[in-house]
């Protein structure tokens, strides 16, 4: 059984990029070499700040979509486990 990953990268701005992959390390390396996604090109340095594992593609893609719809503060709560009051 393959593991499916949903991940969040923190870009240099800082902004967040959420993605899906079967091969987490190689996908992260592609992002870092400016070949991973249009959004992450030129937005380095990139840090992998959050990862979830899913047993199937369908579940992983649904979760990716949910995370992409979150607002910045909601993503920070997910990533870092806290909320900001500002």
Would you give an account of this structure?
The chain has a single domain (4-80), classed as GIY-YIG endonuclease (3-Layer(aba) Sandwich). The radius of gyration is 13 Å and the shape is globular. With 86 residues, the chain is of the alpha+beta class. It contains 3 helices and 3 strands.
Under the CATH scheme, which class? Alpha Beta
CA(first)-CA(last) distance: 44 Å
CATH H-level superfamily title: GIY-YIG endonuclease
Low-confidence stretches: none
CATH architecture annotation name: 3-Layer(aba) Sandwich
Quickly count the helices. Answer: 3
Q: Proportion of β residues? A: 15-25%
Indicate how many domains the architecture comprises: 1
Give the SSE map.
Blueprint: E1 4-10, E2 16-21, H1 24-32, E3 47-54, H2 57-69, H3 72-80
Antiparallel strand pairs: 1-2, 1-3
Structure characteristics:
alpha+beta, globular, single chain
What is the compact description of this entry?
By secondary structure, the protein is of the alpha+beta class.
């Amino acid at each position: 059984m393959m593991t499916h990953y949903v991940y969040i990268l923190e870009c240099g701005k800082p902004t967040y990029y959420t993605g899906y992959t079967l091969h987490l390390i190689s996908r992260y390396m592609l992002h870092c070499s400016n070949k991973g996604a249009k959004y992450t090109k030129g937005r380095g340095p990139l840090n992998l700040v959050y990862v979830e594992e899913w047993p199937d593609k369908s579940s992983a893609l649904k979760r990716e979509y949910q995370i992409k719809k979150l607002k910045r503060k909601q993503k920070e709560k997910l990533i870092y486990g806290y909320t900001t009051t500002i």
